[in-house]
Amino acid sequence: MSSDKQVHLILVDGSGFIFRAFHALPPMTSPDGTPVNAVYGFTNMLSRLLREHAGTHLAVIFDAGRHTFRNELYAQYKAHRPEPPEELRPQFSLVRDATAAFGVPALEEAGWEADDLIAAYARKATDAGGQCTIYSSDKDLMQLIRPGVMMMDPIRQKPIGEKEVLAKFGVTPNKVAEVQALIGDPVDNVPGVPGIGPKTASALMAEYGSLEGILAGAESMKASKRRDNLLAHAAMARLSYELVTLREDAPCPEPLSALTCCDVDMERLGAWLSDMGFSSLLQRMGMKPRPRSHTPAQASAPVDDTVPDAVLPPIPAEPYGPYDTVTDPEVLRQWVNEARAIGVCAVDTETDGLDPLVARLVGISLATRPGKACYIPLGHEGDLMDALCAAQMPVDVALEILAPLFADAAVLKIFQNAKFDLLVLTQAGCVQPAPIDDTMLISYAQSAGQHGQGMDELSRLLLDHTPIPYDEVTGTGRNRVVFSKVDIARATPYAAEDADVTLRLWQVLRPRLRPNRALALYEEMERPLVPILADMERAGIAVDADDLRAMSAEFATRMGVIEAEIHTLAGREFNVGSPKQLGEILFDEMGLPGGKRMKSGAWGTDSSVLQDLADQGHDLPARILAWRQLAKLKSTYADALLNQINPVTGRVHTSFQMAVTTTGRLSSNDPNLQNIPIRTEEGGRIRRAFVAAPGHVLVSADYSQIELRLLAAVADIPALRDAFERGQDIHARTASEVFGIPLEGMDPLTRRRAKAINFGIIYGISAFGLGRQLGIPPGEARGYIDAYFARYPGIRDYMERMREEARRNGYVTTPFGRRCWVPGIADRNAARRNYAERQAINAPLQGGAADIIKRAMVRIPAALADAGLDGRMLLQVHDELLFEVRAGDAERLSALVKQVMESAAVLSVPLVVETGTGTNWADAH
């Protein structure tokens, strides 16, 4: 061992990395047909590590087998772990071969885990006065972090130190094992103490100082389930501590001196890489393919043609730019050829507006590798046309050159918010790119509600990079210009960076889909929905302009009548639309109770204030609410829809937002069709203005009580399940079950109360809220809720499970695996925390319903095509789909859509879809 250079030992958690690589990468095979995706990921990581690390000593540590000394301590340790997938088993030995080919020591010891060896070697390095870096993100290794020992996440290339451990466990690294002993580990079957999660464990540790201090102090704790569990499971907690504590006294197969870094035998490495078919790695390392040392058992495409390098972690650290401006058709062809050779590229468009069906294409960006991107200006203009502007390619020329790339099924095109770009490109006459990936949706499938899904936010969060702001390029306020007026020299770094960032985000996010259990959700639901929603937006829906004008006049007349009533009730005229004047009338002049002043000093008069007053029997606030509702409908729909009719198509084209809600629901805007009142006269009036084209009709298909059906299924409520299976009136059945009233001759008022509870329970309704809804005292409403839970205790159990799941994980999951994150579940503010708990209860049901209708939407276009029906899907509004079809085909389409929607998921209760047909939406619904 060198005595004049401080030891810096690099330890790679080989066993941990192979599993991460296997789950992160799509299937790949070597030339002889052996699965090698994990091997490729591992080899790529090791080659980069050898090129970039600054250590003096290096080793890769592996598990020698599944049986270790911990199984002698506790026979059930890791007993629940499944066998490795068949495709992974042959890769264990190949990873060891890869390590040998690079000349790196591969260490393992029978009866010991790789983590123990890492602990022992880290101790040796620090005892020698050196330092150790552990290449792993495994939480079990975080207990080793201390001065001289740090971790490095090999995927994100981010260091993990005491700060990160505190954020994860709430304690310093030297207390991690004690916290793990309390919470246990279901993956390794470490028992822990039931009912104690990470936050509780860290709080106990802060109060009592150690595991033994906690167990000793349990006797004197306040009576609770937690105290009982600590007393009953103290022995298991101590055993768990032995199981999770890494053994620094583990035997070291080789002395530290044997791990000194040596030069790589390039001849040996080149031969091995050639045998595996890893051609891009050979090129990257400046080597040429060697003749293979064996005859392939079967022909196979080269590995790098199957999965391009760009999908592989860790993420390159290339700088952002400089980027190229492409105005020469021959140079653009070179970019296209490179993208097709690599097999993946990121694409972004620039436009002069936000409506993709109206905006003009201004430019296109491509990125083929991190740091390598270009901008193709197509529609920049200015008062002073410089030479560069004049040199722009005509749009049709550029699109013709790009067409082979966009149509190439072997090249993956990556977008951020792909639907927008697909609409822009197809409107410009471009072939629709396929296949595609969408980084916004890849992120959304894993983190709905956890954070925003915009590119800038994702870049800051995942890449630690802040992209060039749009305002910096276009200006702000009066000085803002449309993007087509931006100088090309300024536009290039902004636009090309968007494509570069999109590619890098894809490299970070795509490998996480499988470990986050979101791969099927993305592949089978979110991604296939992109072109379907794009077609729906492109189709639009016709509206009756004359009816809208008549509706606007009708609403204005009714508002005038209500306004006169308001003035009479107030005793004088005032501006009904002025919150300030209204507050003065209600609280200063009329002296109504419950008024609260805002920071400005004016009285608060929002809808919740007015509703409270109306519920107390005050007429004026009730009339104000009615006036406001009409005013909103008039401005938002009757008037606004006229301005939103596309002058080319004569139809209204809403935009569906795919990554906004926490639950997976779609939302729409411009116009927002989600907020049209469903059960009011005014809502029906608005829906009548949405009409079918001549010779066609609209068909509405609506899931019946889908969230209640999901509740009956996931909470496993036999009485509710039986009612749905029998096709009974669920609200009457509930009233009969809860209030003990026979179904025959059910009192409509009692049924209404049961209906309010059924739907209210889904949203975590309170006794006050139910009482206000039914017009009864809160105490009486509490009695109804208590009777409901007494009859259906499984619903209360479900609600508590969801609260606990949210508290434990930060998210809840739908029956189809979607994670719905619940911010505020641990908020100290009781109101915000209670709201989050209601979200946790409802999200699996609302999200499950969203998942079901999305699954149906993905299947319907193909089903219509197979049946020879040219009907088209126009709208999705929560649980309803709206179609347009020739009048003679309406019955066939209704039957087909009903069959597809009802078979979109298999639950323990039947899904029921109700259909209707009409020349306008109101009649169809």
From TrEMBL:
It is an enzyme of class 2 (transferase). GO terms for molecular function: 3'-5' exonuclease activity; 5'-3' exonuclease activity; DNA binding; DNA-directed DNA polymerase activity. SMART domains: 35EXOc (SM00474), 53EXOc (SM00475), HhH2 (SM00279), POLAc (SM00482). Its EC number is 2.7.7.7. Residues 683-889 form the DNA-directed DNA polymerase family A palm domain. In addition to polymerase activity, this DNA polymerase exhibits 3'-5' and 5'-3' exonuclease activity. Belongs to the DNA polymerase type-A family. This is DNA polymerase I. It comes from Komagataeibacter melaceti.
